[in-house]
Amino acid sequence: MTKTCSKAPSENKTQFKPKIENFKTSLAYEGLSLNKTNKNRSIEELKQAYAR
User: Fold this and answer.
1) Which three-class secondary structure state does DSSP give residue 33?
2) Is residue 34 part of a domain?
3) 15-26 in b/e burial notation, b at 16+ Cβ within 10 A?
4) Which domain holds residue 44?
5) Which one is predicted more confidently, 32 or 9?
6) Phi/psi of residue 20, each to 5°?
7) pLDDT tens digit string along 16-52?
8) How far is residue 4 from each of residues 8, 32, 52, measured CA to CA in Å?
9) Is there a domain that residue 45 lies in?
10) Considering the domain boundaries, does residue 11 fall inside one?
11) Model confidence at 14, in pLDDT bands (50, 70, 90)?
């Protein structure tokens, strides 16, 4: 007999979302900082803005 798995691999995974304070600390280590206009934006929006 063979066993089958009905769950998709992506179904169990959760996407990592850092806290904004940790993101600011990480930017500071890289020599970057947020502009005053970027303070109220989500991390996804900031990633798009700072993407190289």
Assistant:
1) coil
2) yes
3) eeeeeeeeeeee
4) 17-50
5) 32
6) -65, -35
7) 777 888 888 888 888 887 777 667 778 788 788 777 6
8) 11, 49, 43
9) yes
10) no
11) confident
